[in-house]
Hints:
Blueprint: E1 4-9, H1 17-30, E2 34-38, H2 43-46, E3 50-53, H3 80-93, E4 95-102, H4 104-115, E5 119-124, H5 140-161, E6 164-169, H6 176-184, E7 189-191, H7 199-212, E8 218-223, H8 229-240, E9 244-248, H9 260-283, E10 288-294, E11 297-302, H10 303-308, H11 315-324
Parallel strand pairs: 1-2, 1-4, 4-5, 5-10, 6-8, 6-9, 7-8
Antiparallel strand pairs: 2-3, 10-11
Helix pairs in contact: 1-9, 5-6, 6-11
This protein binds 6-O-phosphono-beta-D-fructofuranose.
Amino acid sequence: MEKSIAVLTSGGDAPGMNAAVRAVVRAGIFNGFRVYGIYRGYNGLLNNDCKELNLRSVSDIIGRGGTILYTARSAEYATPEGVKQAAEFCRSLGIEGLVVIGGDGSFKGARELAAQGIACVGIPGTIDNDIACTDYTVGFDTAMNTALDMIDRIRDTAQSHDRCSVIEVMGRRCGDIALQTGIAVGATAILVPEVRYDIERDVISRIYEQKATGKKHFIIVIAEGVGGVIDKAKYIEQRTGIETRATILGHVQRGGSPTLRDRLMATAMGVAAVDILKAGIEKGEQTSRVVASRAGKIVDLDITEALDMPREFDTHLYEVAKEVSI
Ligand code: F6P
């Protein structure tokens, strides 16, 4: 009898999730599985919200933002009863394996389900790039390129008016979007949650130093996790006398057509996830893995091992940013 697997997207959406869903569906069918799409994250396993997908169900989605499977952060699933109910639902449909596309929280959910006998493989999908075990998460590149484009536009008007612009980019606990876009737009200062800052030393003095060499407009990029952009903009204006505006980029960073890199990574990770599920199901092993990109290679790790890894912030890149924004 044909074996079944399923795929869901969970947590905050990210551009490239559709490309990953497409890859899982196509690779699943290629490998002889029936493939179900589960809707609205883990909620779909509790509410019987799913549909069998065929090759054409995922046509023309590789370039689409959002997720055709919808997404959610499910409080109901995150209980022992919820997990048991979800596992029973999988068994009732003959679903032996599940691919979960999402972040750390989604991987924890996958580990719980794996403990109930459903093979699970996670694919890192979040714009934040905040998953320790992988150098790259699906959605990060698109979000950064969107932020880059938006900040370039803000720079145009900041330059015309000789202003300072303070811009908040997403990243609750992770400053990667701020750091990389900040470097790419030539920001005067970049503030991230991973590095303690002093507003006088790290922002005001830098503005004064650049002003002294003739610079008249300034871009300050701040990660969401640092917060307070409106107050900081007021403070900068008051301390420097430079007219200052604040912009919160917000959810614009989460949408849009994925970049080539996101489409490619999502596709490679989706195919890898199915290969791992297939091997686990064939051997009858308990499968609780996560796909990751490490040193340019697609690898897989045990979910607990992956979740226990400490996340390293790129302090070298942070120093690079400081060195070139003098
Ligand atoms: O995890 C991705 C992310 O976009 C974070 O950068 C942000 O803090 C959060 O999700 C916002 O979540 P929500 O869409 O639920 O407001």
